[in-house]
Give the backbone structure.
Amino acid sequence: MVSRAASALLTLAIAVPAFAASEERGQIRIPADDAQSGVTERYRMAAYTGEYHLTRRYDLRHSGVTVHDLTFPSPVRGTIAENNTVYGQYFVPMEKGTVPAVIVLDIMQGNQLVARAEAMWLAQNGVAALVVVLPHYNQRRAPGSRVKLVSADVTRTLDGIRQGVLDCRCAAAWLAGRPEVDADKLGMVGTSLGSFLTALTSANEPRIKNVCLLLGGGGLVDAYYDHPKAKPVTEWIDRFGGKTFVKKLIAPVDPITYAAQLKGKNLLMIAAKDDEIVPATAARALWAATGKQRIVWLDAGHVTSALYTMAMMREIRDHVRGAPK
């Protein structure tokens, strides 16, 4: 359902493209974080310098959007060569002057259809949007590899999520330096899995001001352990030492760990009352812990929330552009 809605939105937006290939290269330079940076130690950056490559692909004249491909080196280097490069697609409004900008992160399925549809619509509505491919997805997965960002291998999952956060921090630094971007109106948008990495990145990236979490939450162990349909999960948690142990294990990737930092952001949450993937209790817990900022409840489940696609997009647009409520 989500993919169908996103596909329809994207198809309408990119009709009749004009091909306009041109290239730009430059440097992303980020100084090292220190203990006074306000960034949690796990997500601090060492000094980073990397060359970015920006290729202009399409001028979508009828949509008023230019689309670029972006690559830059990941600040985390591993043994899988494909995963050492970060890929992005950058959607820019053709209007003159500076505009707000957001990083957009996809759902767990990961073919970028949802994220690109969101980015296209935002660009049509005056917000530059950079879709970032997360570790071990798409171009970042070696041929035949079974390595995934989220798996039963807890250590690999924690490391992959850390890499994703640092990749997005580099992307935020790149966006902040763009001449078309208003660096004081930089944000992030994440849906489902993407919402969790959006929360982690936003909490630990001072450049990010506006945060939109769609179908996410926090306090994950409590939310899943107490869910009436979660017996297989509770049995797994009990085998691994109970709630207290598992909470400590996954605390580095649970958004509620960073609630204090998120309180200082301009936060929008959109949650589904009958979410069968991320329990509504997780959304309520994160909302309460982050200062009870704006939350929009959908009368839907995780998948059927796609029925509210346009309503969600309007909420996001207004939030990142600073429209009064």
In short: The first helix runs from residue 2 to 13. Strands lie at 18-30, 48-60, 65-73, 85-93, 99-105, 128-132, 181-191, 210-214, 266-272, 294-298. DSSP finds ten helices and ten strands in the chain. The first strand starts at residue 18 and ends at 30.
